[in-house]
Amino acid sequence: MQGTDNTTIKKMIDEQLSEKRRIHTYAVAEEAKALANRYGADPEKAETAALFHDFFRGISEQELNDYVLQLGFKTELLNNNNLAHGKIAAYMMKEKYHITDEDVINAVSYHTTGRPHMSNLEKIIFLADAIEPNRKYPGVEELRKLAYQDLDRACMLSLERSIDYVRSRGCYLDEDTVLAKDYLIEEIKRKEYENE
Ligand SMILES: Nc1ncnc2c1ncn2[C@@H]1O[C@H](COP(=O)(O)OP(=O)(O)O)[C@@H](O)[C@H]1O
């Protein structure tokens, strides 16, 4: 794959990320590789996307807002690192680290929200982030199990939970998650129909 190699990215992680984020990042990378092997995706690409997914999670609010404005992201991303960090990482992967693989870049860009028509790699990164072994929240075990049984249904479950969680907190809900869920409902129905 073109661009900065995974060994170099790991050195950057060791030097620049906090211990907690480093542990989470490496755990997502291991989980993503395992899911890639399970579903026939490329483990090296899965690792690259996982290594970058939270690389810009720790930037200051000022820096975050500068990126959002400079890059022309929607204003809802201002002061919203939950939604902005993946988009910023995706941009920096291309511009600074010369990663050219669009699937890897999209997997990072949409790892928080999901989106309709997600590729297998996008689904894998979305789920690996949600189920890596350090994650502890009600229902995580059910999702862990489902992730290795049915990629689409596992994504659906996690998307539904994200929507409920964000709504319950009264926060801005990015529509990509709702659109991703609606898309998967139809996709699951379509696959069932084809298999009948
Ligand atoms: N559609 C959405 N709109 C707003 N917030 C969301 C949406 N989807 C997820 N979130 C929230 O974004 C936060 C960050 O999630 P995530 O990117 O998975 O964490 P991290 O990248 O740090 O591992 C979570 O608290 C989640 O509830």
TrEMBL record:
| Species whose genome carries this gene | Sinanaerobacter chloroacetimidivorans
Q: Which residues form the signal peptide?
A: none
Entry GO MF terms: bis(5'-nucleosyl)-tetraphosphatase (symmetrical) activity; metal ion binding; nucleotide binding
By its UniProt entry, which Pfam families does this protein fall under?
HD
Q: What is this protein called?
A: bis(5'-nucleosyl)-tetraphosphatase (symmetrical)
Question: InterPro entries attached here?
Answer: Diverse_Catalytic_Enzymes, HD/PDEase_dom, HD_domain, HDIG_dom, YqeK
Q: Which SMART domains match?
A: HDc (SM00471)
**What's the catalysed reaction?**
P(1),P(4)-bis(5'-adenosyl) tetraphosphate + H2O = 2 ADP + 2 H(+)
Q: What is its EC number?
A: 3.6.1.41
Q: Which domain of life is it from?
A: Bacteria
Keyword Hydrolase in annotation:
yes
NCBIfam families hit by this protein: bis(5'-nucleosyl)-tetraphosphatase (symmetrical) YqeK (TIGR00488), HDIG (TIGR00277)
Which SUPFAM superfamilies did the record assign?
Answer: HD-domain/PDEase-like
Provide this UniProt record's keywords sorted from A to Z.
Hydrolase, Iron, Metal-binding, Nucleotide-binding
Q: Which residues form the HD domain?
A: 21-134
The reply on keyword Membrane is no
